[in-house]
């Protein structure tokens, strides 16, 4: 049986090997430390890490600290990021298809042109995040916070946005066909050229000053929307 001193010695040697390594590649460093980059970094502090273009599909990153991380073009297909902190992370063109981001924090994250189709984003925080041109089809955003988020040109078709807060968000040119916006809050949102065809809007809150045509307002009211202010 290994003694406490032997365990500490092995740990010191691992740390020493990592510090002396002539690389800053995450996968290489994980290998030197005898760790699996897809399985051994839940709850880990990875703030500011550079994982550009890495294949992290099916990775276990539950509760990981990825604040300010560079995740451009990363593949996180079906990765587990429940309760992860991705504040200010850069995920331009990232692939998050089928990923679990329940209760994750993506405040001010950059997700331009990211693929979030079929992802689970229940109660995720995306306040002031940039999701322009993102693919968010068939995604579960129940109870999510997207105040001030940029969703211009995003594809939200057939997604669940019930009880989502979209106050002050930019939805200009967004596609919302078949989306469920029941009880969502769109007050002061930018809605220029947003497509509400086939959208469920029961108890959805809009501002009276929103840039919608008279005909669109009438149609939304008939479908159960509420215009306030």
Report on the structure:
The protein has helices at residues 4-20, 26-32, 214-222; strands spanning 205-207, 226-228. It starts with a helix and ends with a strand. The chain is elongated and about 65 Å long. The protein has a two-stranded parallel sheet. By secondary structure, the chain is largely without helices or strands.
Concise summary:
By secondary structure, the protein is mostly loops.
| Averaged pLDDT | 91
The global form is elongated
Helix share, percent: 10-25%
Q: What's the SSE pattern? A: HHEHE
User: What proportion of the residues form beta strands (DSSP E)?
Assistant: under 5%
Instruction: Please identify the structural class as seen in this structure.
Output: little secondary structure
Biggest sheet descriptor: 2 strands, parallel
Strand adjacency order, main sheet? 1-2
Number of helices: 3
| Beta strand count | 2
Radius of gyration (CA) equals: 21 Å
Q: Which residues form runs of ≥5 with pLDDT under 50?
A: none
Oligomer: single chain
Distance between the termini: 72 Å
Topology:
Blueprint lengths: L3 H17 L5 H7 L172 E3 L6 H9 L3 E3 L1
List the keywords.
little secondary structure
